[in-house]
Amino acid sequence: MKRIALLPEGSVSHEAALHLFGDEPVELLHFKQISDVFLATASGHSDYSVIPMENTIEGSVSLHMDWLIHEVDIPMQIEWIYPSVQNLIGKKEEFQAADPSDEIDYSKVTKVLSHPVAMAQCLQFIRSQMPKAELEHTGSTSEAVELVKKNPGQGWTAIGTALGAKRHGLDVLARHVTDHDNNYTRFVLIGPRPLGLNYPAAQSKTSLLVTLPEDFPGALHQVLSAFAWRKLNLSRIESRPTKKRLGSYYFIMDVLEAVDSVLLSSAIGEIEALNCQVRVLGSYPSLSFGEQKAEVPK
């Protein structure tokens, strides 16, 4: 049975993992901190780790990308998109409105807790309904829900998932409180070996880490040209600091092609011939929300 490291029960990561694996038997190992999720697989305690990488509203999760670059050397094995549906969670009886026509009296909310990314996704709702409430960041949405459960009667609420509310015996006070309807999160599963699941309709993707040579005018242009003239589609390009000196950056490039294809292999060869360093962060199937496994090998 595969052992999967991920953030706590009731988090979006938990929902996303349940969606990815479906009925396949896996052992889920929950950790409070994303660093422990990475280290579980790096140490061999788990076979894979579920890592949120990018959100529609907030963009890339820089901390998680930096962990993949600087702290561990574990390839991405699959990518999937999952909707981040956030809700306001608490104990309903604490916030009963005097007017029967109103279900919730938001003026009774003294504090809103959540992961900073989830909080940022719901700021319009928070400012319009609870402008005087204190905002407090937690390590995960699930941790926020757990803290609300442990501190009854203080007017605390959490931004989190319906699964998190159910797991901790709390109520969903307001559903779908994100500021935008198209709020999706891109997850990757990292691990030392391929997952062994068959997705025939999935798009192949390869993530590369490219380091340009110093004192090479136009190097980035030439790197991009290596993809362009071969008509290789880059779905993302992002710069991250090398942490070696000011103004020194890596470039993370997602190419919609398998790494062993003739076109991408030759493009990488051309880039390396420019004296660039290329590290493959993973070559994997990329799934959209709703795509299901066609076959799970026995």
Overview of the molecule:
The chain is an alpha/beta fold and 298 residues long. The protein folds into three domains: 1-82 and 184-190, Periplasmic binding protein-like II (D-Maltodextrin-Binding Protein, domain 2, 3-Layer(aba) Sandwich), CATH 3.40.190.10; 87-174, Periplasmic binding protein-like II (D-Maltodextrin-Binding Protein, domain 2, 3-Layer(aba) Sandwich), CATH 3.40.190; 205-284, Alpha-Beta Plaits, CATH 3.30.70. It is 27% helix and 31% strand. It has nine helices and 15 strands. The protein has helices spanning 12-21, 34-42, 62-71, 116-120, 123-129, 141-150, 162-167, 219-228, 262-273, and strands spanning 2-6, 26-30, 48-55, 59-60, 76-83, 87-90, 111-114, 134-137, 156-160, 171-174, 184-190, 203-211, 234-241, 249-255, 277-287. The strands form two sheets. Strands 1, 2, 3, 4, 5, 11, 12, 13, 14 and 15 form a ten-stranded mixed beta sheet that branches. Helix 8 packs antiparallel against helix 9. The chain is elongated, with a radius of gyration of 22 Å. It is an enzyme of class 4 (lyase).
